[in-house]
Amino acid sequence: xxxxxxxxxxxxxxxxxxxxxxxxxxxxxxxxxxxxxxxxxxxxxxxxxxxxxxxxxxxxxxxxxxxxxxxxxxxxxxxxxxxxxxxxxxxxxxxxxxxxxxxxxxxxxxxxxxxxxxxxxxxxxxxxxxxxxxxxxxxxxxxxxxxxxxxxxxxxxxxxxxxxxxxxxxxxxxxxxxxxxxxxxxxxxxxxxxxxxxxxxxxxxxxxxxxxxxxxxxxxxxxxxxxxxxxxxxxxxxxxxxxxxxxxxxxxxxxxxxxxxxxxxxxxxxxxxxxxxxxxxxxxxxxxxxxxxxxxxxxxxxxxxxxxxxxxxxxxxxxxxxxxxxxxxxxxxxxxxxxxxxxxxxxxxxxxxxxxxxxxxxxxxxxxxxxxxxxxxxxxxxxxxxxxxxxxxxxxxxxxxxxxxxxxxxxxxxxxxxxxxxxxxxxxxxxxxxxxxxxxxxxxxxxxxxxxxxxxxxxxxxxxxxxxxxxxxxxxxxxxxxxxxxxxxxxxxxxxxxxxxxxxxxxxxxxxxxxxxxxxxxxxxxxxxxxxxxxxxxxxxxxxxxxxxxxxxxxxxxxxxxxxxxxxxxxxxxxxxxxxxxxxxxxxxxxxxxxxxxx
Length: 599
Description:
By secondary structure, this protein is of the alpha/beta class. It folds into 2 domains: 3-568, FAD/NAD(P)-binding domain, CATH 3.50.50.60; 571-599. The chain is 25% helix and 18% strand. Strands 1, 2, 3, 9, 10, 11, 12 and 22 form an 8-stranded mixed sheet that branches. The chain has a 6-stranded antiparallel sheet with strand order 6-15-16-17-14-20. Helix 1 packs parallel to helix 7, helix 1 (17-28) packs parallel to helix 11 and helix 5 crosses helix 11. Residues 217-330 form the Glucose-methanol-choline oxidoreductase N-terminal domain.
């Protein structure tokens, strides 16, 4: 029998970037918030002397325990999905701070094109640019509306950067200057400039200088040690929830954080949530936490799974396209090129997670797609993240996989190779989605989430195009051997690619095609807000964190409005069902009138 606790105003499921933002903003306004995190607590003091590549980068010390909870995977619906036994393609974090602890710090704003991708694509290229099997849709918000929230997140995180000549417009400069450039980055920028491109320093959550954010939290200057991705920062120099929003939330005195609390159900009466049920992983006890407002702030997969498991929202049906929960799962592709230099050596050992130079000339709709069989693109970058010895072994194609020649080539090219990579945008497809697995269960006896995903024709064409462009830059950089990245026949759950999973609880302005409005409030359970990259209607050509942060700040504003409005659906620039019906009626009347004129 679960023990029922005293009711609170707001409960969050997970304590990472999004929960930290929600708790900090609500706590400042006197709202009592309880954050439930299934992992353990941790802060900068826990990351001292963590430069252990084997323990953290290869054995995933900071990641979700796949032996207790995982997901199943298949490429196609006719296949049987099988459980993932060890993380490979992506790495969900666990513990306070979530994936925001072990991220690299590359912090971007999605483009105006991203947020209105369906309408802008249709207008410029026609409705048949992509086939009907692609479930492309607008996000229900414009860049102009979201821009202030982007800057709010950048101020909180102290992002270091410089103006992107091909990027979205900015009302304010970055809070801190860009990171130090290096000979490797300078070489890339010179080559890109020679080709008529527009290089710039990558926006970074590894700070170029010590910074105090508007909430009074101190973030230290990066030491360029090269241990960012998959590691916590022992210097407190990487913008994470643990050094920014979570301390701010705790400082308000209105935020209570409970660790080892695994939420297994959102309790609801069919119209509104009444709270959550969770298991204490240390004692095994079950608790019910009643709440006026439930905020899902977990990872993409868990947000989707918990809604499906709890019966909130209509599950997506790939056969007829109805339903929204689980719809539009997207990932990313990784085109690029590697260059091998016969005589020159490079210092690739030092670096930082977001130390890099980029070009945006091939991102979004920054180039003409009229004669191309795909839309969108991706940011193209060369990064100096710190090449660690176990996981890095670049050798030219044709090198044997073992033996004396393999060893000789490995030693020769370890510091004589450079790579340019692109993050190719992922467009939603009717067959790429998430649902509950009918066979496999977790440690609590609940169904695992099932991931149905494979690369599309859009992915393949975009991958080839961007890899060719990366090879052109690498050739201009003077590499003796240039090898383009190749794409496998099917997506595989290994090896690691990115932790940039999106979709499943997508946003929009139509309750029939989206799960949440542009405050990330569920249409049909108005006291439930689902915050994170699960709201992305597709995946852009950037890392998602900056856009996740912006949406979280907007969601916090929406929750406060919801309270002030006495529990009514937050309208803002949203369209109610009645308004949508009236607009459809008016449009039909207009079309009939035009038809009569033509007749």
